[in-house]
Design a protein that fits this description.
By secondary structure, the protein is of the alpha/beta class. It contains 4 helices and 7 strands; from the N terminus they run βαβββββααβα. The protein has a 7-stranded mixed beta sheet with strand order 2-6-5-4-1-7-3. It starts with a strand and ends with a helix.
Length: 136
């Protein structure tokens, strides 16, 4: 199984709308633009919601989901948000560790929507989320 970052733009879809509309256990589908990574999202993969710093003042990781399916032809990802999204959307994970990890994953190509998370960064993201919620 893989982990993917779904990068959101604060100017196009504000964190306030995310907080209001996204709830755990609801089915969603979103289009995506550019995908960075050789693999494709698959059922059971993790999708992490990330608001980039550009375009607003509320960056960070806002939650995650389980991918139901991916349609490469229509460039759509189908997913179900999971715990602790309802917590993270109210208090996103955004500290020096998160900045470092996200910058390493995005590299110089910061203008994509989907980023495949390298296997060596998956634990760091999971641990960072747990730590931000005082679960670690």
């Amino acid at each position: 199984m893989s982990m993917w970052i779904y990068q959101l733009n604060q100017e196009n879809w504000s964190p306030e709308i995310f907080r209001y509309e996204i709830w755990e256990q609801q089915r969603w589908s979103w289009p995506y633009g550019k995908k960075v990574g050789d693999d494709n999202p698959a059922p059971g993969d993790t999708l992490v919601f990330f608001y980039a710093p550009r375009g607003g003042n509320e960056p960070g990781i806002y939650g995650w989901a389980v991918i139901e399916r991916w349609d490469g032809e229509s460039k759509t990802v189908y997913f179900i948000p999971a715990t602790p999204t309802d917590y993270l959307k109210m208090d996103p994970w955004w500290d020096e560790d998160a900045k470092k990890i996200l910058n390493e994953i995005r590299g110089r190509m910061k203008q994509a929507t989907l980023f495949l998370v390298p296997k060596d960064k998956v634990f760091a993201i999971r641990h960072g989320i747990k730590k931000s919620l005082h679960f670690a």
